[in-house]
Specification:
Helices cover 23% and strands 39% of the residues. The chain is α+β, with helices and mostly antiparallel strands and 254 residues long. It has a single domain (28-253), classed as outer membrane lipoprotein receptor (LolB), chain A.
Length: 254
């Protein structure tokens, strides 16, 4: 009887040790592949405003002939406390249907130690190098979970840029507080994020843990600005867009 009791204690300790070992194996470096999906029916419709009623025939044409969703691909490499988000160039969108929210125009380097980012951003044939602090997002954690790319993720609801609502799913198996584009600030890597009112989502399709062969470095091309200066440059470029201005601005700074 005593032998069976000792054996039972040994098995409990062994299982607890294995569980602890698995839990302690946090991923600190690797590569993540993301798909950005844009609902073009909704985004092209937003181009039809009081000051751009001439866009209505183009919107109706898009509904007849073009796909509702387009997908843009990107990669995120991360190592310890830095990450680099890089879009994979995809097929262009005809200019009458084009929407800033549908594109991927940012190469984003994030340093989570210094809490700063460097973003190379291209729009209207101009390139900017935006150097500023990491984006501050007000997150509220929830109890909802889902599996993304094989990882158990927890939901958080967020507010960024004062008025943009986002839903994110992060995993604490990846011990980096980053994510696609400029999304950050959760207790683990963001593998999925939706911005429902802006009709776009980013979701990881593959996670490859392991060492990064080349150093992660910030982009260097473009006119150096901070976030405030960038917004001033954008507003100058779209000053004649009327009531479509705010839609374009959100697409270019998100």
């Amino acid at each position: 009887m005593r032998y069976k009791f000792n054996l039972l204690i040994w098995l409990v300790v062994l299982c607890a040790g294995n569980a602890f070992s698995q839990h302690s194996k946090f991923i600190t470096s690797g590569t993540i592949e993301y798909d950005k999906t844009a609902n073009m029916f909704a985004l092209v419709k937003k181009k039809v405003t009081k000051s751009t009623l001439d866009m209505k025939p183009h919107y109706e044409e898009y509904l007849r002939d073009q796909p509702q969703f387009i997908i843009r691909k990107s990669t995120l490499v991360f190592d310890n406390n830095t990450s680099l988000f890089t879009p994979i160039k995809g097929e262009g969108i005809y200019w009458t249907y084009d929407s800033p929210m549908a594109n991927q125009i940012n190469i984003v380097y994030s340093d989570f130690n210094s809490k700063r980012s460097t973003i190379q951003k291209e729009f209207y044939e101009r390139t900017f190098l935006v150097q500023d602090t990491l984006r501050k997002i007000k997150w509220k954690l929830t109890d909802e979970t889902r599996i993304i790319a094989g990882y158990n993720c927890r939901r958080a609801n967020g507010l960024l840029l004062d008025s943009i609502y986002a839903v994110a799913f992060y995993t604490d198996d990846i011990h980096i507080s980053g994510g696609p584009e400029s999304f950050n600030g959760l207790p683990g890597m963001i593998l999925g994020v939706a911005v429902p009112h802006e009709n776009v989502t980013w979701f990881a399709t593959k996670v490859t843990p392991g060492p990064i062969n080349t150093p992660i470095a910030p982009p260097k091309k473009g006119k150096s600005v901070n976030n405030k200066q960038l917004i001033a440059e954008i507003l100058k470029a779209i000053s004649n867009y009327g009531d479509y201005t705010m839609t374009v601005l959100k697409g270019l700074i998100l």
